[in-house]
Structures are given as C-alpha cells and as structure tokens.
Specification:
The protein has 391 residues and is an alpha/beta fold. The chain has 2 domains: 4-61 and 349-389, Urease, subunit C, domain 1 (Roll), CATH 2.30.40.10; 62-342, TIM Barrel (Alpha-Beta Barrel), CATH 3.20.20.140. It is built from 14 helices and 16 strands. The strands form 2 sheets. Strands 1, 2, 3, 4, 5, 14, 15 and 16 form an 8-stranded mixed sheet that branches. The chain has an 8-stranded parallel sheet with strand order 6-7-8-9-10-11-12-13. It is globular. The model has no long low-confidence stretch (mean pLDDT 96). Bound molecules: zinc ion (ZN). Residues 66, 68, 227, 302 line the site of zinc ion.
Length: 391
C-alpha cells in the first residue's frame, strides 16, 4: 500500500461524472483520496511521491475476470493444425493436463508469474485465475496455490477459482469424477479459492452435474461462475440464472430469452472475444444480444494455451469493440467496472474516492486510442495499490 499523486493527466476517467481534462489523482495508503483538475490539487498533502503522467489518459486498472493462467506445455500443434486447415485432431485440454501434471511446483510458479506479469504490463490490475489443468484433488489444490503465490509475485490483486469440473479426465468414470470434484471442495476452500466454476457444455459437464457441483460449492461458501453456452445451447445460462451465479462466461449461443433472464438475475455476462478469434469460431453477435437485453457486460482474456493464448486486456477489448460491435464507452466499462461486477467487487474498476488505487496510464492522450490504435503497447504504466510498476 503506497501513497502517490498522479499529476498532469491528459484525460481522467473515474466512472464518476464526466472525463476530467488536465487532471490529478491522489492515492493515500493504496486508496483513492481525491480526483479532480490538476489546478485544484489540494494543498498540504504532505510528502507524497508524484508521478508525472505527461499528458497521458488515465483509466481504472483493467479487471481480467476469466483466465486459466496456470499451465505448462504448449498447444502449438493445435494452433498450426487449425490455421493450416489440415485434417488434424486437437490435443485439447488433456495434453495440457499431462504437461501441467509433469511440471514441478517451481516450474509452474515461474510460468504463471511470467504470464501474470505480462498481464500487468498490459494494464491488468486484478485477475481471476482458475485451476483446471490438474484434475486430481491434489493437483488442483497445487494449481490454486501456485496462482495465489504468482499473483503476489506479479503484484496483482488475484482471486482464484476451483475448476475441477473443466473436463472429465481421460479414463475416469463420469459419476465418480463428479463425486470427487464435490468431495474436493473443502480442500479448494482451504487452498484459498473464492469461486467455483463449471464448464457446462456438450463434451464437458451436463446441467445436472453442474447444478450438483455448484450447489455444493455454494454450501461451502464459494461464489459461483460458469462456462456457459460456448459450444452449443444447453440451458447453462438459465442454470446460471437459477443459481444466481456472479457471472456466466462465453455465451456464444445465448438466446434473447436467456439474455433477459441473466440481466434480471444480475448475472454478469462475460465476453471472451479472443476465443472467438483464436478458435476461429468467429462468433460475435451474442455481445449485442446481451447488451441489448441490459446485461452487465465484462470482457476477459480467457488466457489459456489452447483457445486464447493472450495476456493482453487491450487486445480482448479491441476485439470486443471492433468485432463484437461494442462502442468505446461500453467496452471500457466492461473491462473495468464490468470485470469488477463479475467478481462482485465494488472497490475496483473505478476511481471514485475510497476505491483501490489501481490505474493505468495509456500510451496516448485519449482513452479511446486503447481500442483504436492496434498492434502497439496500449499501456505505458500500471499502478497497483498506489505503487507504480513498470513503465
Ligand atoms: Zn475459460
């Protein structure tokens, strides 16, 4: 927790009132104490370090509310096969599970810390990290522990999610495995998990299996989230509504009825546009269905080796804007306030007085350039808890 005055901000977005030009932000002990015009900076702030933004636009730090950042190995062959159009069989999640199980704790910690550091370099200040490449109780707990430790090393606000229900491991009986996932919930809680997620889809877990796992997770005090309606329409969005999940993610096959139900139940709709590109499904229209139904939207990277090898929130935001058709403000809100809502946090995603001192300096004097200028480093500096990092 640090104190910092960010001065000479070209345009300041706080999500409380209009953008302030030539602005300043005062962070005291990691918390936003004051924002306004630089010329109105209060006197008597004491001996607080100053950061000159050099006219850069400043936004609240990005909240990446859906990642699978703990893995080992590569899915290079899947990628090469997919883009060559050759007849190939994807190695899929099971190959990543094998490589992750084969890696040592220290190897996983180094790989994960590197990824989270890269996320922070692109402006992420809060990240959700799922397990899901261990698929035994012991391995899953280890991945949750790695995620928490890596988050600390990368200086990111990190929350972890137990995703034992990612896929049924090869050679396992489904019913036995679902029992094991349910039986592992206390260990996941002990390992610091705040959330339980289920990949509910054709080829993954059924509605009944998801309902059982998530209902039990709630009894253990975990918050609920779901991979829903990604590969097919299964009714997962309606289940997310029934269970009052914090977030339903993907939603490529969502219907207008589903979208209205999600909005009414205050389930955040998390968009992961990098997956639509990377998997070459090229499905984008669900974003506007969800927006038009009044859903709170979040944007996340879904950082994972097979379908979204991407640590950059600006890249995900550019796709949400340009491919999914969201306007600039909707996109920026979804990447900040929306992610916060998906994690049920009110202290992040905005820069109101009392918010966490997490912000990004954009490599431009206008925040819309994060979306409009492709292929560059969109963020020049990230501040977490009032500590400037990188640059
Ligand atoms: Zn995912």
């Amino acid at each position: 927790m640090a104190s910092l005055i960010v001065r000479n901000v070209g345009r300041l977005t706080t999500w409380h009132g209009p953008v302030v030009e030539r602005a300043a932000v005062v962070i005291r002990d990691g918390v936003v104490e004051w924002t306004g015009a630089d010329a109105d900076l209060p006197a008597g702030l004491g001996d607080v370090p100053e950061l000159d933004a050099g006219g850069a636009a400043v936004l609240p730090g990005f909240v990446d509310s859906h990642t699978h950042a703990v893995w080992a190995g590569s899915r290079r062959e899947d990628f090469v096969g997919r883009v060559s159009g050759a007849d190939y069989s994807p190695h899929g999640i099971s190959s990543t599970v094998a490589a992750t199980r084969a890696a040592s704790y220290d190897e996983l910690l180094a790989l994960t810390t590197e990824r989270l550091t890269e996320m922070r370099r692109h402006g992420t200040t809060t990240v959700e990290v799922k397990s899901g490449y261990g698929l035994t109780p012991g391995e899953e707990v280890q991945l949750l522990t790695v995620a928490r430790q890596a988050g600390g090393l990368a200086q990111l606000d990190t929350t972890t999610t137990y995703l034992g229900a990612h896929v049924v491991p090869a050679g396992r009986d489904r019913a036995d495995y679902v029992d094991e996932v349910v039986g592992s919930l206390p260990a996941a809680v002990d390992a610091g998990a705040h959330w339980c997620d289920v990949f509910c889809d054709d080829g993954a877990f059924s509605l009944d299996e998801a309902r059982r796992i998530l209902t039990s997770a709630r009894e253990h005090g975990l918050g609920l989230r779901m991979h829903a309606e990604q590969l097919s329409h299964t009714g997962a969005a309606q289940l997310a509504t029934e269970l009052r999940c914090a977030s339903a993610d993907h939603l490529d096959h969502v219907t207008e009825d589903d979208a209205r139900a999600l909005a009414a139940a205050d389930v955040v709709a998390t968009l992961v546009p990098v997956v639509s590109l990377y998997s070459r499904s090229m499905r984008w229209s669900h974003a506007r269905i969800l927006r038009d139904a009044g859903c709170t939207l979040a944007i996340a990277t879904d950082c994972n080796p097979g379908t979204a090898w991407c640590e950059s929130m600006p890249y995900a935001m550019q796709l949400a804007c340009l491919a999914m058709g969201l306007d600039v403000e909707t996109t920026l809100r979804a990447a900040t306030l929306g992610g916060a809502a998906a994690l049920r946090r009110t202290d992040i995603g905005h820069l109101g007085v009392g918010a966490k001192g997490d912000l990004v300096l954009v490599s431009s004097d206008h925040e819309s350039d994060v979306l409009g200028h492709l292929g560059t480093q969109a963020v020049i500096q990230t501040v977490v808890d009032g500590c400037p990092i990188g640059g």
